Amino acid sequence: MPTLITGAGQVGSYVARALVDRGETPVLFDVHPRRDAVGEIVDLHRVKLLRGSVLDMTDLIHVIKEESIDHIIHTAAILPTPDAKPHLAVQVNVMGLVNVLEAARALDVRRVVYTSSIVLYYGAYPKHPPAGAITEEAPVDRIPGFFYGTTKIAAEYVGLDYADALGVDFVAPRLGHVWGVWSGAFGAPISILLHMLVEGALNGEKVTIDQPMLVWGGREGFVHVRNVAQALIRARDAEKLEHRTFNITDARQYAFSEFLDEIRKHIPGAEFEVKVPLTGGYAGTAAVLDQPYDISRARRELGYEPEVDLAEGIAEYIQWARRKRSATNKTS
Ligand SMILES: NC(=O)c1ccc[n+]([C@@H]2O[C@H](COP(=O)([O-])OP(=O)(O)OC[C@H]3O[C@@H](n4cnc5c(N)ncnc54)[C@H](O)[C@@H]3O)[C@@H](O)[C@H]2O)c1
């Protein structure tokens, strides 16, 4: 029976591709499906790409019944952008999940896999600086004024209550900062940064990085989007889970300079000038981290093993950027 993937953005598209590779025909459900971007990642003939909103119960119930859905991987969300509207973010990120959980409960969907975030820990770091590896038991707190982070905490906790009180099988992988090839809309700083570095370097320009949001000190918890897809599908399939929350990152954390160095290996002569100090955390957060995220729970219970590392992900990204440029040059 097919899996419903809410949200056909970066993560949803890669989950769909990984399911297609396993011989499944997933159903992607998005309020604004971007066929071109999704079609670059997954063969559109092998998925169902439907337009619909997680805020519309009728749409949700209809698709679950009509497509005989037995699992849901919920990726639909409003990501943080400078113009993020709190009302919409709370509606989609919290009530969207509540609708998915209610529909799952009413229609006996076997499991709902949520896309939580390591941003849950960020608000707690200043008060409780992590001494060692960051496990799922590390304190969770909001970052004052950061609606997106608060919606991710609220939604995860609501999902856990649906599991505890109402028996909905809910699993919440907490994803690191997602990176990888994607030409749809992006707001995540790492996507903006990679685009800027690679396009500038391929144009032979010196790239100046002068936005504090795009740099970070220490080492941060990123996760390649193909590793994310693996983790979410394993979270869908794992039996006899002892826990419902799992840290999901790449095998190790990356410093800002490592992305630059890796790009230079593929684009000789690439010139980058960093004009802002690397004194803050990722995306303008206060905490500078060097501790790794502990992914041993995901390894043990889900069988998760990150396959794509920095070298492979950057090589793939640059190959893709080069292919796109030569295709554009041919048509212009
Ligand atoms: N990108 C990251 O760094 C990151 C990190 C941790 C967790 N996450 C979580 O992973 C999930 C997927 O993120 P992504 O990077 O693929 O984001 P994305 O923006 O690429 O995809 C989200 C998709 O949800 C869709 N959507 C928005 N409102 C909707 C609605 N009402 N109904 C149906 N679809 C709707 C959007 O159109 C978009 O295509 C999100 O829950 C996000 O919070 C992302």
Q: What are the main properties of this structure?
A:
about 40% helix, binds nicotinamide-adenine-dinucleotide, alpha/beta, two-stranded parallel ribbon, Rossmann fold, 2 domains, about 15% strand, globular, eight-stranded parallel β-sheet, UDP-galactose 4-epimerase, domain 1, about 325 residues, 11 helices, single chain
Describe this protein's structure.
There is one protein chain. The chain is of the alpha/beta class and 332 residues long. The chain has 2 domains: 3-181 and 223-249 and 293-307, 3-Layer(aba) Sandwich (Rossmann fold), CATH 3.40.50.720; 189-216 and 253-287 and 313-331, UDP-galactose 4-epimerase, domain 1. Helices cover 42% and strands 15% of the residues. It has 11 helices and 14 strands. It has helices at residues 10-21, 35-41, 57-66, 86-106, 119-122, 147-166, 189-202, 225-237, 256-266, 296-302, 310-331; strands spanning 3-6, 27-30, 48-51, 71-74, 111-114, 116-117, 170-175, 177-179, 206-209, 219-220, 222-224, 245-248, 254-255, 271-274. The strands form 4 sheets. Strands 1, 2, 3, 4, 5, 6, 7 and 12 form an 8-stranded parallel beta sheet that branches. The protein has a two-stranded parallel sheet with strand order 8-11. It has a two-stranded parallel ribbon with strand order 9-14. The chain is globular, with a radius of gyration of 19 Å. The termini are far apart. The model has no long low-confidence stretch (mean pLDDT 95). The protein binds nicotinamide-adenine-dinucleotide. Residues 6-12, 30-32, 53-55, 75-79, 92, 96, 115, 117, 175, 177-178, 184, 188 line the site of nicotinamide-adenine-dinucleotide.
